[in-house]
Amino acid sequence: MLNNTNDPHKLEAGSFVFVLLMCVIANAQSFHPGPAASRFDSTAVWHPPADFRQTLDSRCDSLGGVAFQDCFLNLMRESGATPEALRFAELTDTTGYLRRFVNAGTVDIAYVCYPFRANENYGVTLVNGRPGMIDVDDFQYVDLTLLKMDSTYLDIVNDFPDAAVWPGDRYLFNQPAYEPLTGGGQRFIVEYSLKNGCHACADLAAIRFAFDFDSTGNFIGTHLVGVKRLSQ
Fold it and tell me: How far apart are CA 55 and CA 75, in angstroms?
């Protein structure tokens, strides 16, 4: 079963037609990237103080919506966050902050913490290209329909009909791997987990997709690198 969602926490089951539609939209976006935003660098990294969560709970918990977001940003500012760090947080809809930045070339890697999520508190975004920020777990960018043509994936789904695609480990800094492409482009290899139906269920396979960018940082699209079945 293919899966897709606009919710970055969990990949809900969806129809093949819906996934295909999302991929068409993503391809259209890749050909019409729009202007580049101002670049991020390591100055956007923010390390919250040890008592930040306690202060946040006491000052912001009773607020909601924009008021909560403003409270969060004010606390970041008070704790020494740079203007760049605040701008990055705003691009996450003020739900996260940049915890590590990796200079990878034209397009760079940003490791994000989402402290308010119940699950999936860490994420990876590709920044400084066009679009300016791509969450690798936003499945409008990933052509999941390619899994339908992979024999390993099809064998697993045949054995485990509830198999679902979930984000891989986003806490460690050892992925995505990245490499240059001919002509000056870049490729980022991102790993996902094929699980037996739920977040806490067994891992059935590791799935790798490549995110490709041209020499000027325009997002070209994704392609399936491989599916590796794991022993159950």
Answer: 8
CB 153 within 8 A of CB 137: no
177-180 and 108-113 as β-strands: parallel, antiparallel, unpaired? unpaired
The residue type found at 156 is I
118 vs 8: CA distance, rounded Å: 12
Residue 3 lies in a domain: no
Higher pLDDT residue, 200 or 180?
180
Pairing mode, if any, of strands 186-195 and 177-180? Answer: antiparallel
Residue at 72: amino acid letter: F
Task: Return the HEC string of 107-171.
Answer: CEEEEEECCCCCCCCEEEEEECCECCEEECCCCCCCCHHHHHHCHHHHHHHHHCCCCEEEECCCC
Count of structural domains, the chain: 1
Cβ–Cβ under 8 Å, residues 10 and 22: no
* DSSP secondary structure letter of residue 202: P
Q: Using CA atoms in the order 139, 124, 79, 64, what is the torsion angle rounded to 10 degrees?
A: 20
Q: Is position 166 within any domain? A: yes
Are the C-beta atoms of residues 96 and 89 closer than 8 Å to each other?
A: yes
pLDDT, tens digit (0-9, with 9 covering 90-100), for 44-74: 999 999 999 899 889 988 888 899 999 999 9
